[in-house]
Write a structure and sequence with these properties.
The chain is built from no helices and eight strands. The radius of gyration is 12 Å and the shape is globular. The mean pLDDT is 94.
């Protein structure tokens, strides 16, 4: 499993409301997900860059939202596997 890019700022992070070991990170290099409380992580949201924030729905943990530094909003309905830009 990979890890977060070194020497990079984490702009935002969110923790799953049902499993506190699952953490999502937003960075300039993209989005990352850790299944083990940040010990390891893997990139998610292929092609997404300049991410500013990320949030997990408290009622539906598979529903994740992320935004870019220029204000674009993306939504995942499958815990970060696929993403769609929101209008």
């Amino acid at each position: 499993m990979g890890s977060l890019p070194t020497n990079r700022t984490v702009n935002g992070f969110a923790v799953s409301p049902v499993d506190p070991r699952v953490i999502y990170f937003a960075t300039r290099d993209g989005l990352f997900k850790s299944p083990d409380a940040g010990v390891g992580s893997k990139p998610i949201g292929q092609g997404l860059k300049n991410m500013a924030a990320i949030a997990v729905s408290p009622k539906r943990p598979e529903e994740v939202y992320a935004s870019t530094t220029d204000g674009a909003i993306f939504k995942s309905m499958d815990a970060g596997v696929t993403w769609s830009r929101q209008p």
